[in-house]
Every structure is written in structure tokens, then in C-alpha cells.
Design a protein that fits this description.
Layout (H helix, E strand, L loop, with lengths): L1 H27 L26 H29 L5 H28 L31 H19 L9 H24 L4 H5 L7 H19 L15 H19 L8 H29 L4 H15 L8 H19 L1 H6 L7 H19 L18 H31 L6 H6 L1 H6 L5
Length: 457
């Protein structure tokens, strides 16, 4: 663990140096127009009287919202639930369900207002606390053709799945009470601010031109890095690397991965916030990158281990979905193919070589897939973004704007630094109050009976 902490300290030092070096370049560079998914960086997030609701856009966004919610319950619940040992399967699916309920309430009370109203470059305002002022006719200027209630709920589903992803990193060993405290605080103190940085109407990363169409930084790097910090703070599971810990039921994981794949079309294509060509291209590149990454992971594992596994191909598909997320509104099919190949191979290394070298216990590879895959996707967005998507100023390296790669690196570094510091503080706070980890006996016997009084027969 000391070596892992040393690596973490060096990572924080290196990222801080990179951040300091990139700030002058950011100050000199013209900022591209904000992404179509979040629209108008300079616009206020208050209701617009001039907005005209579009029934087609509204119908698509209602569908997308349901698809993204399906990603957490039942998608992620089954995906994670199938990968843990039988004695912890109920505790694992309970985490996804409970996070859905908890974050829904927090989003209504404070999260939405902090993330998606105008306030400052670092945090939104208080005009929508408890959704005050939201009516059937109100809109958010980030989505002028759909009711604000639909936009709020769509963004709520993103706020739900992000902390739910973190749970995979500390599966089998966190107290349920600690989970509720940590996820609740993290949702308000980490997710909402970073969402505002990148997508808020006056967020500073939005204004700097960071491209994140559907959540490469906000969702995946954010959750993956928080998961890594949690895994390091809590330490390894008892018996890790000594006794086998095979998945309980890979059929459940395949079903969960399949639901995630289908739901991801709402995640990415829905981020166009309209039923238009941008949504269509986002859907196409999502399918292409996902299938390509699944094959890339499968073949990489086949070469290294001699056999292609079921867990490998579904993990590769999730890696492809993660990596294409920030790029989905900005790249063409050729870019999607390359992003898919890179995601499959690099995330396979992230869950094997990197994990073994750093010797941390990321139970279900939240960091290896989401943290690594989100970083790959965010950077490659700066390479493959094309000018014809979203208008002038969207091009990347291959389309004549090499500076976009630097902007993307800047967004990645800011997200990692803030996430590491804030998550570490919250974990230490929860550990000092209610305690993070279950007792040794509970961990050996299983969380299902000890925490919830139930067991899978």
C-alpha cells in the first residue's frame, strides 16, 4: 500500500505541474464555442420566454432519460452484481438501488441548481434549490426546445450513475452507512461542481473550450479516479491475491452489460438534447466504438492469456462506451474506430498490467475501465474532433487544430486534481465518524447477511 500511496502522491505532484504549465497556454488561446450538448457558454440558465418547445425533441429526451436510468437500475446493478462473490451479490445490487434513490433527492434539493444554473465559474447559483421556480413551461437555456423538468431529470440520471460507478472499486468491504454518507457528500461536493466546470453556463472549463459531449470527464474520469482513491484509502480485500475471488454469475453481468450498451444510446445521443443529425451521428459512433473496443480487448486477452473470456469481451464493450462518450458529438465513424481500438487495448492493460504494478485492489475495475477509458476518450476527442460537427471551432488535431489536445489535457488534469483532493477529504471524514470498512468477520462471512439480513439461495 505504501508504494501505491507513493504513486498517488507523485501523480498529484505531476498533475499540478502540468496544470501550472498549461494555464499560460490556455490564457493565450482563443476559446472554441461550447459543445452542442451543453450549448451557449455565455447564456444564463434562467427560463427563457423566447424559447419554443419542440415535441420531437421532447419525446426523444423523455426516451433518453428512461434509457439512462435503465443503465443504473437494472444495468449496472446486474453488471456489478454478477461479478462479485455470491455472499455479496445482494449488498452490491443494493448499492446501485440505494444510490439511485439518494442522489435523486439530493439532485432535487441542491445538485441541479449547483450544476446547471449560472453562478460563478466554479459553482452554479441557488435559483433552483428545491427546484424553486420550475414550471411546466420553464426551460433552461442550455436546452431551449424541451421543458426544464425533462432536462433536469435527464441530467439527474447522469448524477445517479456517476457515484454508482464508484461502488465497483470498493465492492465487498464498505459499510452501508459509510456508503450513504460518502456518496451523498460526493454527489454534492464533487459531482455537481465538476459538472458545472464542464457543462455549466458559466463553467470555466466550458469557457476554456474543453469538449465533453456526454461525460468523459464529468462521469467517467470523475468516478474512476474517486474509485481509485477509495480503493487506496480502504486497502485491499482480505484474501486479495491469495485466494480466488471468481465472479458469482457472469450471465447476470452479460445481461447488465447489454442493458448498459442499449441504455448508452440515451446517454450519448441524448446529449444532443434534440432529435437531430448530431444525435444520429452520436448514436452511430457509439455503436461503432463499442463493438470495436470489445473485439480489441478480446483479441488482446486472447494473445496474452490464450483464451478469449466472456468477462473480457463485455468489459471491452464497456471500455468502448466509456471512451466514445466525450467524443460522441464531435467525431466521425473513422475516429470512432480508432478510439474503440485504443480503448479496448489500453483499458485491458489498465485492468491487468497497471493494476498489478500499482498493487491496488479495485474490486470491479472502476478505475481501469472508467478512469483509464475516460482519459483515453477525452484526449482522443482533441485528436479526432471534426469541424463539421457542432460548427466552427470544433476541430481537433487531424482537422487542423492541434491546440485542442492541450485543452483536453487541461480538462483532464483539472478534473483529476479536484477529484483526488475532494474525494480523499470526504473519505477521511467519513472514516473518522462512522468508519469506512466492515469488520473482518463480516467481510469473511459476506455482506449480505450481516448488513441486510438476506442471502441469495
Amino acid at each position: 500500500m505504501k508504494s501505491a500511496y507513493l504513486v498517488l502522491q507523485r501523480l498529484m505532484l505531476a498533475t499540478s505541474i502540468v496544470l501550472l504549465l498549461t494555464l499560460p497556454a490556455m490564457a493565450q488561446a482563443p476559446a472554441p464555442t461550447a459543445p452542442a450538448a451543453t450549448a451557449a457558454a455565455a447564456a444564463d440558465a434562467a427560463p427563457s420566454a423566447a424559447a419554443k418547445l419542440d415535441s420531437g425533441d421532447t419525446a426523444w429526451m423523455l426516451t433518453s432519460t428512461a434509457l439512462v436510468l435503465m443503465m443504473t437500475i437494472p444495468g449496472l446493478a446486474l453488471f456489478y452484481g454478477g461479478m462479485v462473490r455470491k455472499m455479496n451479490v445482494l449488498a452490491t445490487v443494493m448499492q446501485s438501488f440505494a444510490v439511485t434513490c439518494l442522489v435523486t433527492v439530493l439532485w432535487v434539493v441542491i445538485g441541479y441548481s449547483f450544476a446547471f444554473t449560472a453562478g460563478s465559474p466554479f459553482l452554479g447559483g441557488t435559483s433552483r434549490l428545491l427546484l424553486f421556480g420550475m414550471t411546466v413551461d420553464s426551460v433552461n437555456d442550455l436546452a431551449k426546445t424541451i421543458p426544464e423538468s425533462v432536462y433536469m431529470t435527464f441530467q439527474m440520471t447522469f448524477a445517479i450513475i456517476t457515484p454508482a460507478l464508484i461502488c465497483g472499486a470498493f465492492a465487498d468491504r464498505m459499510k452501508f452507512s459509510a456508503l450513504l454518507w460518502f456518496i451523498g457528500l460526493w454527489s454534492v461536493c464533487v459531482y455537481a461542481p465538476i459538472a458545472h466546470f464542464v457543462w455549466g453556463p458559466d463553467g470555466f472549463l466550458n469557457g476554456a473550450g474543453v469538449l465533453d459531449f456526454a461525460g468523459g470527464t464529468v462521469v467517467h474520469i470523475n468516478s474512476g479516479v474517486a474509485g481509485l482513491v477509495a480503493a487506496l484509502v480502504m486497502g485491499r480485500r482480505r484474501g486479495f491475491a491469495v485466494e480466488p475471488m471468481p465472479p458469482h454469475n457472469l450471465v447476470l453481468s452479460v445481461i447488465g452489460a447489454s442493458l448498459l450498451w442499449v441504455g448508452w444510446f440515451g446517454f450519448n445521443a441524448g446529449s444532443a438534447v434534440a432529435a437531430n443529425g448530431n444525435a444520429g451521428m452520436a448514436m452511430a459512433v457509439t455503436q461503432i466504438a463499442t463493438a470495436t473496443a470489445a473485439l480489441a480487448w478480446m483479441f488482446a486477452e486472447w494473445v496474452v492469456k490464450g483464451k478469449p473470456s466472456v468477462l473480457g469481451i463485455i468489459s471491452g464493450a464497456i471500455a468502448g462506451l466509456v471512451a466514445i462518450t466525450p467524443a460522441s458529438g464531435f467525431v466521425d465513424p473513422r475516429g470512432a474506430l480508432i478510439i474503440g481500438i485504443a480503448a479496448g487495448v489500453i483499458c485491458y492493460w489498465g485492468t491487468t498490467g497497471l493494476k498489478h504494478a500499482m498493487r491496488y485492489d479495485d474490486s470491479l475495475d472502476a478505475f481501469g475501465v472508467h478512469g483509464v477509458g475516460g482519459t483515453v476518450g477525452a484526449i482522443l476527442t482533441g485528436v479526432f474532433a471534426v469541424a463539421w460537427v457542432g460548427g466552427e471551432g470544433k476541430s481537433g488535431l487531424i482537422d487542423g487544430n492541434p491546440h485542442q489536445v492541450i485543452i483536453q489535457l487541461y480538462g483532464v488534469v483539472v478534473t483529476i486534481v479536484y477529484d483526488v483532493i475532494a474525494s480523499l477529504i470526504l473519505l477521511k471524514l467519513v472514516d473518522a465518524t462512522v468508519g469506512l470498512r466492515v469488520d473482518a468477520e463480516v467481510e469473511r462471512e459476506g455482506l449480505d447477511l450481516a448488513l441486510h439480513g438476506e442471502a441469495v439461495q
